[in-house]
Amino acid sequence: MESYDALLASITPTTGESRTIIDPATGTVVGEAPVHTVDDLERAVAAAQVAQPAWAALGHDVRSAALLRAADAVERSAEELALLLSREQGKPLNGPNARFEVGACAAWLRATAATPLEVETVVDDGETRAELHYRPIGLVGAIGPWNWPMMITIWQIAPALRMGNAVVVKPSEYTPLSVLALAAVINEELPEGLLTVVSGGRDVGARLAEHPAIGKVMFTGSTATGKAVIRSSADTVKRLTLELGGNDAGIVLPDADPKAIAEGLFWGAFINTGQTCAALKRLYVHDSLYEAVCTELAAVAAAMPMGVGLDEANVLGPLQNRQQFDIVAKLVDAARDSGARILLGGNPDDGQPGNFYPTTLVADIDNSNPLVAEEQFGPALPIIRYGTVDEAVAMANALDVGLGASVWSSDLDAARDVAARLEAGTVWINKHGNVDPRVPFGGAKQSGYGLEFGVEGLKALGVPQVING
């Protein structure tokens, strides 16, 4: 792509219905997104059925080479993609935000291409030889969220393509332009019909989940919508990978150094202005260092600039949509009304344009308070006191979700012992939310099932076949 304008023009519809996309930081128009229909979905599925067999026949090496070329294409258009992402989603260009997200897209494409997937010899005893292979599923449906629209789309489509599948993507209605632009760039290096974005409403998503030609659905989003995907997919017994809601707990052990961990705690909680499934959303701190952690964390948080994403100085942005703003505001107001102590923030400027909610820290809050018990998905962190590690573990495990968790300590052995007791798909030590394309990632309890990333992620996009003889 030659420029931002050219990139935007390449995805702007010239016919059919469209929807105006608004910048959540400024209220200005970003562009027009197509409103695709179920008929458009059917055409995308038909094209994918035509393209997929030849793609599967190319083999892993050729498909991996195509993914590497796609990564090159993303890097060539990286700044244009980041500008669009910042304007549509709201996240700043700098910090772990828009440029970071686009860079992660290229990195995940490269890592997916480089991950080996060997035939596994299960038995070879001289009489029986059994080998485990993974064959393409065929067509994969990918339904993505609005918080990390480009990166999570890559998490879905890169392993699907590597394993020989065609992909039909249904992006969030809040951030369709980012996904359409990313696909347009990647499609410079892919056969026609293999990867299609259908930018429609809930009817398109529902049809994708139930479509008899779709062999697998990958979904990232809320637990409630994930349950609807499960129901829609049941009649055709689709394979599913579901990365659903989380309310991640962090436990600060008594031997931790408050000053040393403060910045890690901040970014664990407030990356993407708190709009991350695996962000730190409940922080449990031992009585002995509770005030020190509150003080150090507040000092870090107060120094982080929030504002319009295109301003190079900012590292925190607005909430992507007003509905999410209202959820955060309601939860913080309820916490304040209950007697909790607002350390920082909690006072949005209603006269300011955009969906900006200030960085908010809430102390002396009961563990049953809605700000603790419900996923806020925004820049408000409750900090809960505990007296014993057993108490902290019990509170952390009390909810019906378990995407991630973290333990913060100067004693790695003690931290690992506590980590083993937590009911979460990933438990980080002295960090939170750090994902790696080589390391499997998935949820426990109602945070979903199935693994992404690495060899396990590739296997999840294939059909296991045992050849015995």
What does this structure look like?
This protein is an alpha/beta fold and 469 residues long. It has 2 domains: 4-244 and 447-468, Aldehyde Dehydrogenase, Chain A, domain 1 (3-Layer(aba) Sandwich); 248-429, Aldehyde Dehydrogenase, Chain A, domain 2, CATH 3.40.309. It is 40% helix and 20% strand. The protein is built from 16 helices and 20 strands. The longest helix is centred in the N-terminal third of the chain and has 20 residues, at 38-57. The model has no long low-confidence stretch (mean pLDDT 97).
Spell out the blueprint of helices and strands.
Blueprint (H helix, E strand, L loop, with lengths): L3 H8 L6 E5 L6 E6 L3 H20 L2 H17 L1 H12 L8 H17 L5 E5 L4 E8 L2 E5 L5 H14 L3 E5 L5 H11 L8 E3 L4 H9 L5 E5 L2 H11 L5 E5 L4 E5 L5 H13 L9 E7 L3 H13 L19 H16 L3 E4 L15 E4 L6 H4 L6 E7 L2 H8 L4 E2 L1 E5 L3 H8 L6 E4 L14 E2 L2 E2 L4 H6 L2 E7 L1
Parallel strand pairs: 5-6, 5-8, 6-7, 8-9, 10-11, 10-16, 11-14, 13-14, 16-17
Antiparallel strand pairs: 1-2, 3-4, 4-20, 9-19, 12-13, 15-18
Helix pairs in contact: 1-4, 1-7, 3-5, 4-5, 4-7, 5-6, 8-9, 10-11
Give a concise summary.
By secondary structure, this protein is α/β, with parallel strands linked by helices.
Largest sheet: 7 strands, mixed
- End-to-end distance, in Å? 51 Å
Helix fraction, binned, reads 25-40%
Could you tell me the mean pLDDT? Answer: 97
What Rg is obtained from the alpha carbons, in whole angstroms? 23 Å
**What is the CATH class name of the largest domain?**
Alpha Beta
Structural class: alpha/beta
Shape: globular
Strand order of the largest sheet: 12-13-14-11-10-16-17
Structural domain count: 2
What's the CATH H-level homologous superfamily of the largest domain?
Aldehyde Dehydrogenase, Chain A, domain 1
CATH T-level fold name of the largest domain: Aldehyde Dehydrogenase, Chain A, domain 1
Instruction: Write down how many β-strands occur, each being a DSSP E stretch of 2 or more residues.
Output: 20
* SS summary, helix count: 16
User: Approximately what portion of the residues adopt beta-strand conformation?
Assistant: 15-25%
Unreliable residue runs: none
The CATH architecture name of the largest domain reads: 3-Layer(aba) Sandwich
Organism: Arthrobacter bambusae
Keywords: Oxidoreductase
Domain Aldehyde dehydrogenase: 17-460
GO molecular function: phenylacetaldehyde dehydrogenase (NAD+) activity
